[in-house]
TrEMBL record:
The lineage of its organism: Bacteria, Pseudomonadati, Pseudomonadota, Alphaproteobacteria, Rhodospirillales. GO terms for biological process: methylation. It comes from Roseospira navarrensis. This is Class I SAM-dependent methyltransferase. One of its GO terms (molecular function) is protein-arginine omega-N symmetric methyltransferase activity. It holds the Pfam family Methyltransf_28. Keywords: Methyltransferase, Transferase.
Length: 363
């Protein structure tokens, strides 16, 4: 699908039906983008943590092994990665498990991925390590403990936007401007019952006119299902993404193409559309099924606590000065608060609040 076809289809639909919800447009744009196979890496549109340094995936693999030991070393574990990109994180995590062969032998690896193009890339990276690919978590086996990992998975899920006008919340939609181009418009008044209570109509600290609030129903449904499954199956979920720890107002919808911000409604289907994850909303969704949320913890704090710098020092041994400098640069990018260390956060789900997870102590 070309971006012209997508643009034309959306404009025709708006002309026939009226302005569309933001979440509908975001879902269609990202479906087109990921169907093409997103350009991940330095020469593409964006770079994720596993592509920056192997330390990231290795730390996650070893973290999962420690959690497995804490949970009594179950003989079979369903390991799932959601939205694995090129498969780099999973490859690094599995390689790091060489010192823990019993855990590696217990793993049955599954991947949740909707893009046929990315599935082929993942097959090339992971080979026969993967038991099966799935479109959704719903078809993943549920007869063993679930260990789930998702890095920059939630941020691409479609959001519903509200805009404050005349003292009320209205749905924000995408319509057409005077020239027939896609444009944001204020839609009908909406009860906004899915917003945090402190943001709803009548709240004492109500938002001012012009404020924008975002809700991601798909993310909430995903973590609710994750919590329900972990309570039923046992296991752990680890989600790492950029976002904010507390629900609030503010537009975070953005488009990135060629490592630069791009106008959100221009060339839909050719740029990566994302929003910041609302971790407080996820915690509430997890708790609804009796599961426990841990974090969020800043990525830099979490990686440091798990020994990322020590692992990087091991990799630097025996390398050239250039290799040494590159390893240091890569790990610094992951943990430095001014780079990815503060904006990105780690969030985990277990079956009970009594579970104490490495890197989440005291959270």
């Amino acid at each position: 699908m070309t971006d012209g076809t997508l643009d034309a289809r959306l404009r025709a639909r708006i002309a026939a039906e009226g302005p569309l919800p933001v979440e509908t447009v975001m879902a269609e744009a990202n479906a087109a983008y990921y169907a093409r196979g997103p350009a991940i890496g330095a020469a593409g549109d964006f770079v994720t943590a596993p592509e920056i340094s192997q330390v990231f995936g290795e730390i996650i693999g070893l973290w999962l092994a420690v959690v497995w030991q804490m949970m009594g070393r179950p003989p079979r574990v369903i390991l799932v990665e959601c939205g694995p990109g090129r498969g780099t994180l999973m490859a690094d995590a599995l390689r790091a498990l060489a010192p823990v062969p019993a855990f590696r032998a217990a793993l049955e690896v599954h991947v949740v991925e909707t893009s046929p193009t990315l599935r082929e890339t993942q097959r090339a990276t992971l080979g026969d390590a993967v038991a099966a690919w799935h479109d959704t978590l719903a078809t993943v086996p549920d007869d063993a403990p679930l260990f789930l990992v998702g890095n920059e998975f939630l941020d691409a899920l479609p959001v519903r936007q509200y805009v404050r006008a005349a003292g009320r919340w209205h749905l924000r939609r995408v319509g057409l401007d005077g020239a027939g181009a896609l444009a944001f418009v204020t839609g009908e008044p909406a009860p906004a019952d899915d917003l945090h209570p402190r943001l709803r109509d009548g709240a004492p600290d109500g938002a001012p006119d012009g404020a924008i609030a975002e809700v991601c129903p798909t993310a909430r449904e995903f973590v609710s299902d994750l919590g329900r499954r972990i309570v039923h199956q046992g296991g752990v979920g680890l989600l790492i993404d950029y976002g904010h720890p507390r629900s609030g107002c503010g537009e975070t919808l953005q488009a990135v193409r060629g490592h630069r911000y791009h106008p959100v409604l221009r060339d839909l289907g050719t740029a990566d559309l994302t929003t910041h994850v609302d971790f407080e909303a996820l915690s509430r969704s997890v708790a609804a099924f009796g599961a426990a949320a841990h974090g969020p913890v800043e990525q830099g704090v979490w990686l440091r606590a798990l020994g990322a710098e020590a692992r990087a020092a091991m990799l630097r041994q025996g390398g050239s000065p250039e290799q040494d400098a590159e390893i240091q640069r890569a790990v610094r990018r992951l943990i430095d608060p001014e780079e990815m260390g503060r904006l990105f956060r780690a969030f985990a789900v277990t079956g009970t609040e009594s579970d104490v997870l490495p890197g989440f102590e005291g959270m």
